[in-house]
Amino acid sequence: MALPPWAEGEPARFPTDETALPRTKQRVRSSSLPDSLRPVLVLGASGTLGGELCRQRPQQVIQLGRSELDLRHPARAQQVVRSLQPRAVIHAAALTDVDWCQRHPRQCFAVNAHSVAAVAEACRQLGVPLVYVSSSFVFGQRWPGGPWQEHHPPCPGNAYAQSKLLGECFARECPRHLIVRTCGLFHHRPSRRQGFVENVLAQAAAGKRVRVVCDQWTNPTYVPELARAIWFLLEACSRREALWGVYHVVNQPASTWYEFARALLHAAGYTTPVEPIRTGEFPAVAPRPRFAALATEKYAQLGGPPMSPWPQVLAGCLRRLPSGRSVRKLQTGTSLSRRSAAPV
Hints:
This protein has helices spanning about 50-55, 75-85, 100-105, 105-125, 160-170, 195-205, 225-240, 255-270, 295-300, 310-320, 335-340, and strands at about 40-45, 60-65, 90, 130-135, 175-180, 185, 210-215, 215-220, 220, 245-250, 255, 275.
């Protein structure tokens, strides 16, 4: 994959100052513990997926969010991993605003790619596994004639997608690695960025016209089930019951964002019509893939926790939304065609 000069980055080097550890985490080094008792380090713990991963295994993780570890400085991330000596690392941190990444490619590549290189090198030296959460956006604008499978060649179409694919390449430098591609995440818990579900509900509750793209395909994916699947994959591969490598983990069936919005409003009891629009009617800074749906047969064959059909989990997700979240005001000019984008 050809990269512009600013995406090349500098090779991460190990700092020698042990005090560079996040202050609140300096006492949780695990080098003296047996492997079975050493915690898993979750990077991106303040994000939607990272937070859910930590909630599902609260006694088994070290949580590092953006405030504890700035991944724009990969060398520090590498030193922190070495110092904490976890039994595995889950890299669930990312810059996911696709248009912002297109405008700020240096920061995008620093977090989404070069931090992965640093963490992968630390994991390689420690001899521990690395789980990297990636995106269906690595497949760009082409259509393979069906859902994308793990062996299909990537074809990223914007800076965000290029950074995630480069992150995958760096993750492969760790001998025991898992690359989990996903897309279309939704959750019942609050997050820093208002997601697609909240945007649609807010527009309907405010009596606004709901316009959603009908020519972009994805897999709406429920975050608690995705997190459960990631834990299963890590544990199964660590026990040699599954092979390390790339897995696609999403809920089925594939859907356009327009179809997802219609199902969402129906499940929420709204009669608000949804107007289908084309991507070109709301031009964005970064191009979006028209077909980003993933095939999941490889994961399903392992017999792990099932990924439910997303229409089945949607109603339960809506019931668990905290009161008032569905009517949060939108900023003037927001477009649902621009907000449907990233995995984590």
